[in-house]
Amino acid sequence: MRTYDDTFSGQRIYPGKGKLFVRGDSKVFRFQNGKSESLFLQRKNPRRIAWTVLFRRQHRKGISEEVAKKRSRRTVKAQRAIVGASLDVIKERRSLRPEVRSAARLAAIKEAKDKKQESAAAKKAEKAKSAAGAAKGQAAGRVTSKQGSKGAAAKPAIHSR
Hints:
Elements: E1 4-5, E2 12-13, E3 19-22, E4 28-31, H1 34-41, H2 53-58, H3 65-68, H4 87-95, H5 98-139, H6 146-149
Region (Disordered): 110-161
GO cellular component, one term: cytosolic large ribosomal subunit
GO molecular function: mRNA binding; structural constituent of ribosome
């Protein structure tokens, strides 16, 4: 048996009952009785009228206790490895004590500083060596241009006839 829902109240309309209302734009409205039709034509909001299905649904009326209290699932966080570090390494780092972590950090900083100092010293020695070589070249009477000292090819000698 085909039943329809009341457009205003939301209640079921059985065959042979109710009214059909067709608006100017050809939209069809079905009403269970004159009461719901009258309220619809007065442009009443069915969510504000206590006996309509929309009002009861909005205000959570008549819902059985089992349906109302749904248990929400707790999200389970899964730990995954990051590129460059396996899961074991990550867990190990996380479980380190703060003292051990700070000591390791200080050691890493000291190592980086030593390395930087060593490279700076090597650079300084290289510069002193090149400066000494340049001084030697000037003592011999050789004059080199800025580009020549950087390794540019020497200009070809000009020959006049």
